[in-house]
Amino acid sequence: MLSINARDIHKTYRSGFMGRKKNHALKGVELSVNKGEIFGLLGTNGAGKTTLLNIFSGQLAADSGFVEVLGHDISKKMPVSLKEELNMCSGIPNFPWSLTVEENLKFYSLLYGICDKDCGDIIQNCIKMFSLEKYRSVRYDQLSSGNKQKLALAKSMINNPKLLFLDEPTIGLDPDIAKKIRELIRKIHGERDITIILTTHYMKEAEELCGRIAFIKDGIIKAVGTRSEIVALTEGHNLEEAFIELAE
């Protein structure tokens, strides 16, 4: 069963004077993501990773092509009911700075339509899952970068999503903190019936977490497969060398 089925996806942005210049962000993307897997989407800056995530999550519409998410055709519009089954976590989290950890989680639970009688237990479970008990009353602007990212992950689980998008979840973090975040991602995947799509620049992260990987360059999917399958397509001996070759 597929969580995502995308066929011939195109997306163009206009820029320059009077929008006369066309920038082709996606050029006929074909991609399938299996239910329950952690799927890695790798590529250099500007390759089209975030544009693709924004289309899959309903934040952006493709110019043309077919997109199916969790069995729903979202090529033209995403049903509101489907949005309740998705969530996203960015590597550059942005929360109301004056709210505490607990207040931020309550704020987002209300945005997802979780009623007051249920949100208390859900918030406490998320706080416990990401070891934020000591910081529940700490304001967002007083958190360390690692705890800000833990809060972002906690927020992403507030609605118990079936499909989770992680956009560069460890970018800018110290190696020890990044390792803890990867452990939490594995924990989420192991404990829940969830599909995860992960974008990252870090080959080690992709190797540790992802069952399958896609490389995107200039809006085109260049390769899809397991780590060993990707490496076999190139002259490289490991994923990093394969990435460099595919990015050329």
Explain this structure:
The protein is α/β, with parallel strands linked by helices and 248 residues long. The protein has a single domain (2-247), classed as 3-Layer(aba) Sandwich (Rossmann fold), CATH 3.40.50. The chain is 35% helix and 28% strand. It has nine helices and ten strands. The protein has helices at 49-56, 80-83, 101-111, 116-129, 145-156, 175-191, 203-209, 227-232, 239-247; strands at 2-15, 21-34, 38-42, 64-69, 72-73, 86-90, 163-167, 195-200, 212-217, 220-225. Strands 6-7-8-3-9-10 form a six-stranded mixed sheet, sandwiched between helices. A four-stranded antiparallel sheet has the order 2-1-4-5, covered by helices on one side. α3 (101-111) crosses α4 (116-129) and α5 (145-156) runs parallel beside α6. The two termini are 34 Å apart. 38% of the residues are buried.
